[in-house]
Amino acid sequence: MGNFISGGRTSQDTVGGDDHRIPREHWPNVDVTWVDFQKRRKSPYYVENDQDDGDDMGLNGFLFPGGFVIPDSVIELILALVRPEDILRCNLVCKNWKDIITRKSYWKIWFDRNKWDWNMIPQHIKDMPQAWIVFHAQVRHHIFTKNYVVNHSGVGDSTYKHRNDFRNWTIDRNGGDRWKLETNPKGCNPLSPDPFFDNSTSAWVTSFSPCSKWTSIDLWEMGLTPPVMMTCLPFSLVCSQMYTARFDSGGVFTWTLRTLDRQEEIIHEFTEVYELKPEMEWQTATHPFPFKEEHIDNISELRSLVFVHQGKDDRFWKGHYGIKFSRSCVKLQLDTPSARDGDGVVEVVDKSEN
Question: Which domain covers residue 103, as residue numbers?
Answer without folding.
Answer: 74-141
